[in-house]
């Protein structure tokens, strides 16, 4: 789960009468979690959902598979560095990778709006093809629906995926240990700022491109090297901050991170200052955090930095004693700041 | 595949410049097939997609799994006999059953429109829970997105599913043989007419309820009895006619069916006459066709008729020599009629 929403179900505390869905229910932040915890999890409760991972881990005759789903509603459909098509492939591939799985098969469900230009659909499908090839996955089943003009928004894409978890690999918040180091795979905020700039036609003097990428590639290079990855989490809706708070809560561990260690490129930092955004909460589509034993951290950094998708990898913090699910940050000026989940909606429809 | 769209990819004949998506591209009929064949299949071509089944059959260490996806955009969201929630569970469960699989795990991806009443969402989620329990499947992973008011239409739901294909079960158009009988599980047209009546506030004097149901239940009763099911196909968008034409084309076999043998209830027949619809093309969500050896047909009928979801089962035709992918029907007046795929859009957003 994470800002992915592992389900379960029984409708505990009824939601307020007359309540309505707001954009913030889709933020990946506090209100998304409230929706999941009050409506979804109570109805469907089962151990796979309750694990609150980026996907479910299933076992069939001793073979372990990861299974994940995501719907993509990004606006605009095309943005610097990608479009909804490669985003939809990369996103689900990355979710499977966060389970420690080798992504294998994807489905695609397209909801098209009447009047959508065929030429744009061709470009999107072509990007899906290229992204699937890069990630070495096969798109094996699909579905197409069309809604009347004004009842959709161009294209929505759902991708679901199956990956295989090989050997003894076990990647889960439950495996996080006191003393583990937290490694970030690269600089923050590119995807969110790229999409926002494209949507609002903002000019920051330099084009910031999305970091959308198949995170299975760097993760598999770590697994192949025999690294014991305790936990992985991609930093999508709600950004690094929300991901850390989610994982800390699920694992009932505390994390301490250091602001000076967190890389943010100058263009993204500048854009965030202009927009009044905190890069810790801006969405990424090609960044993840990894929790590993301190003794493994050096090798993890070497492998990641040798991979095109991990050149900016660095240690940003560690797991500390406590067990309250709290995340704190040492700030640049030497203070301590408690990190919370994203509240409200910072950047709607970022993925 | 079928009106499910197994994918593949390479963009062969470019589509006309300036072309746009029309509602008929989502009909499940001829234009949906054109879209798939010209845009989707060329880009992603692989044997699982090319099989053009209701789902892909995947193998992991000797275990065979079926994998299927469907997005639901039905309007209205609530209709006699069901709502988008149980429809989304039953539909994907049924698609897995059409692969001869025992459905096990589902994902759910919700795209909600800002302002959607929480109370309606609770009812939908509750229906999903009940449907999942009835079909004995677990919802193990999910995702929730929210789009601005006016950019969606209440709720869209994607469900993807994984089922296990047990023993030597092999259900596929490729297994259809000359002389096989074609068995229909019950009367036609209930779902399409129920949704259309609810949408247009039509009063046919009697409430026609959708037949939405988990087809895994009757199919598993056949498989458990050791029946060798050659092929199965559910009769959703495009109805019986489109399903037969699809299967005949994929299998390169000819089918001959008899109009007098095809059950349509009086209320549905009356509604179709008023609306100028042919029940052969009206969507169902709880009916399937089965291709079996003639020697097995009697036992199949007995088992189906003993099951609540198959009480109206009957033999409607047979596989004939030819191999051109043609479907013909002996009409009530003794003539022969060639059956084509649905062309255009009869009932948009039926599922």
SSE inventory with pairings:
The structure is a homodimer of 351-residue chains.
Chain A: H1 30-44, H2 47-50, E1 56-60, E2 63-72, E3 78-79, E4 82-83, H3 84-98, E5 102-113, H4 118-135, E6 138-147, E7 155-165, E8 181-184, H5 190-200, H6 216-224, E9 231-234, H7 239-251, E10 254-258, H8 266-275, E11 288-292, H9 297-305, E12 314-320, E13 327-330, E14 336-339
Parallel strand pairs in A: 5-6, 10-13
Antiparallel strand pairs in A: 1-2, 2-7, 3-4, 5-7, 8-11, 8-12, 9-11, 10-12, 13-14
The biggest beta sheet of chain A is recorded as:
7 strands, mixed
Question: Terminal Cα separation of chain A, in Å?
Answer: 16 Å
H and E order of chain A: HHEEEEHEHEEEHHEHEHEHEEE
* CATH fold type of the domain at 173-338 in chain A: Phosphoribosyl-aminoimidazole Synthetase, Chain A, domain 2
Radius of gyration of chain A: 19 Å
Compute the number of strand runs of chain A: 14
Shape estimate of chain A: globular
- Class inferred from helices and paired strands of chain A: alpha+beta
What is the helical fraction of chain A, as a range of percent? Answer: 25-40%
User: Largest beta sheet of chain A: what is the strand line-up?
Assistant: 9-11-8-12-10-13-14
Mean pLDDT of chain A: 92
Name of the top-level CATH class of the domain at 173-338 in chain A? Alpha Beta
């Amino acid at each position: 789960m994470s800002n992915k929403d592992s389900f379960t179900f029984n409708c505990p505390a009824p939601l307020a009468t007359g309540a309505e869905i707001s954009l913030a229910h889709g933020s990946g932040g506090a209100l998304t979690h409230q929706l999941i915890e009050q409506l979804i999890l109570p109805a469907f409760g089962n151990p796979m959902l309750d694990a609150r991972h980026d996907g479910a881990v299933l076992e069939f005759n001793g073979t372990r598979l990861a299974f994940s789903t995501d719907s993509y509603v990004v606006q605009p459909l095309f943005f610097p560095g990608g479009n909804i098509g490669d985003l939809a492939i990369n996103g689900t591939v990355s979710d499977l990778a966060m389970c420690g799985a080798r992504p294998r098969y994807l489905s695609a469900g397209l909801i098209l709006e009447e009047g959508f230009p065929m030429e744009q659909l061709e470009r999107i499908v072509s990007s899906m093809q290229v992204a699937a090839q890069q990630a070495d996955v096969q798109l094996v089943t699909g579905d197409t629906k069309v809604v009347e003009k004004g009842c959709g928004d161009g294209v929505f894409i759902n991708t679901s995926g199956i990956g295989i978890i090989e050997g003894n690999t076990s990647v889960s918040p439950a495996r996080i240990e006191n003393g583990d180091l937290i490694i970030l795979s690269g600089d923050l905020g590119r995807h969110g700022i790229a999409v926002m700039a494209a949507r609002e036609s903002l000019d920051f003097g330099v084009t910031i491109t999305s970091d959308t990428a198949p995170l299975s590639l760097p993760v598999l290079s770590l697994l192949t090297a025999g690294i014991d990855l305790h936990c992985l989490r991609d930093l999508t809706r709600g950004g690094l901050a929300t991901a850390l708070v989610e994982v800390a809560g699920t694992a009932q561990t505390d994390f301490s991170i250091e602001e000076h260690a967190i890389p943010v490129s100058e263009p993204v930092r500048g854009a965030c200052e202009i927009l009044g955004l905190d890069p810790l909460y801006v969405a990424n589509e090609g960044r993840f955090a990894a929790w590993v034993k301190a003794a493994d951290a050096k090798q993890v950094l070497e492998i990641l930095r040798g991979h095109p998708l991990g050149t900016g990898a660095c240690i940003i913090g560690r797991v500390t004693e406590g067990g309250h699910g709290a995340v704190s940050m040492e700030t640049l000026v030497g203070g301590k700041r408690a990190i919370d989940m994203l509240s409200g909606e910072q950047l709607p429809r970022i993925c």
